[in-house]
Amino acid sequence: MKFFIDTANLDQIRDAQELGVLDGVTTNPSLMAKEGITGRNNILKHYVDICNIVDGDVSAEVIATDLKGMIREGEELSELHDQIVVKVPMIRDGVKALKYFSDKGIRTNCTLVFSPGQALLAAKAGATYVSPFLGRLDDVSTDGLNLIAEIRLIYDNYDFQTQILAASIRHTMHVIDCAKLGADVMTGPLSSIEGLLKHPLTDIGLAKFLEDYKKGN
Ligand code: G3P
């Protein structure tokens, strides 16, 4: 399972990278705005800054919603850095753009996916990653994890190579559950990854080992 961090915050990305288990970064226009990154040139520069911190894939989202615009922006983004993956929304022209980019060998992440049918379309169009937003489904009383399971089943039935990128992860149990269900990638806040290392018995056990060591030395 690959671990991505879902943020445009460079300090958090550095922290995650230093932990040694980071495989990539996802961003979106809201996350960019949260960091105060505005204006096309600043946004493009920020993507390059992120690529220079991490070793893996960095998703950069198109803003256009028409095919021509998505192609123009996507090609510009993909030329920024070889780690860039073009993030395309699951809309009609988005499907066409996924196919266009796939034919050109440009890697893509199909975002804003909320149903198995949308995930099937993304795979048919050749998306590299598909991003089901499980936390946002949970927010509206719908089982987000069930969507991950349904997509896994469909992709395995036909051996689709599109990777399931479980997105909108909110906490550590989401990470564990997605791992059990066979999601290829998770993306969430750094806290959802850091939560994996916590266990009170580890802390108690370590304190006892150190105490016993001191007694004998
Ligand atoms: O990767 C998708 C993500 O950015 C959405 O997360 O927490 O805003 O639903 P959230």
Strand portion: 15-25%
Order of helices and strands: EHEHHEHEHEHEHHEHEHH
Please state the CA-atom Rg, rounded to the nearest Å: 19 Å
Low-confidence stretches: none
Can you characterise this structure?
It is a single chain. The protein is an alpha/beta fold. The chain contains eleven helices and eight strands. It has an eight-stranded parallel barrel with strand order 1-2-3-4-5-6-7-8, surrounded by six helices. Strand 1 (2-6), helix 1 (10-19) and strand 2 form a beta-alpha-beta unit. The N and C termini lie far apart (42 Å). The relative contact order is 0.12. The structure holds SN-glycerol-3-phosphate. Residues 6, 26, 28, 131, 133, 135-136, 167-168, 187 line the site of SN-glycerol-3-phosphate.
Highlighted features:
217 residues, alpha/beta, 8-stranded parallel beta barrel, 55% helix, binds SN-glycerol-3-phosphate
List the helices and strands and how they pair.
Layout: E1 2-6, H1 10-19, E2 24-26, H2 29-34, H3 40-53, E3 57-61, H4 67-80, E4 84-89, H5 92-104, E5 108-113, H6 116-124, E6 129-132, H7 134-139, H8 144-158, E7 163-166, H9 172-181, E8 185-188, H10 190-194, H11 200-216
Parallel strand pairs: 1-2, 1-8, 2-3, 3-4, 4-5, 5-6, 6-7, 7-8
Helix pairs in contact: 4-5, 6-8, 8-9
The structure holds SN-glycerol-3-phosphate (G3P).
Produce a short descriptive summary.
With about 220 residues, this protein is α/β, with parallel strands linked by helices. The protein has helices at about 10-20, 30-35, 40-55, 65-80, 90-105, 115-125, 135-140, 145-160, 170-180, 190-195, 200-215; strands spanning about 1-5, 25, 55-60, 85-90, 110-115, 130, 165, 185-190.
